[in-house]
Amino acid sequence: MTHRYQDLIDIFDGCFAGDFNTRLIKGDDEPIYLPADEQAPYHRIVFAHGFYASGMHEISHWCIAGAARRELVDFGYWYCPDGRDAATQGQFEDVEVKPQALEWMFCVAAGFPFNVSCDNLGGDVEPDRIAFQRRVHAQVMTWLEHGIPPRPTRFIAALQAYYNTPPLTADQFPWPEDL
């Protein structure tokens, strides 16, 4: 199955451009979220280099952000770039669990491979990818059991319709040791 970034843009915009005045935009370098301003009358989720995976990840952050955060550049989130120490890496992983859980669900809905990202290639500490992915897995299981929030549910349904994939079930999300 081919996953083209333009298809992702079309799916996202079809879901959210009207109700949320938000569009997915192919960017060049670093991803960023930009609320509507004098340069554009709509909110922009800018993803890196046309990478499908980057688009999925940035959409997941948008789906987590509440209304007030969606009025702030990059949702007003804290971000410390690659090269984090152990304490800062722990903080980074804490804020990434939910977005990466949604990203995994989006990837399954699109039939696209998911790779958990600890995003600390040049840091002083080697992240425990398996432990982090277990936390992400636990969040996926919680949402599958108790319900997925409305915006991600809408996006998942659109991905499933476009890619003709089945409904999400727990067995589609292997325990991290099995990867």
Automatic annotation (TrEMBL):
Pfam families (UniProt xref): EpmC (PF04315)
Domain of life of the source: Bacteria
Molecular function terms, GO-annotated: translation elongation factor activity
Keywords associated with the record: Elongation factor, Protein biosynthesis
Stated name of the protein: Elongation factor P hydroxylase
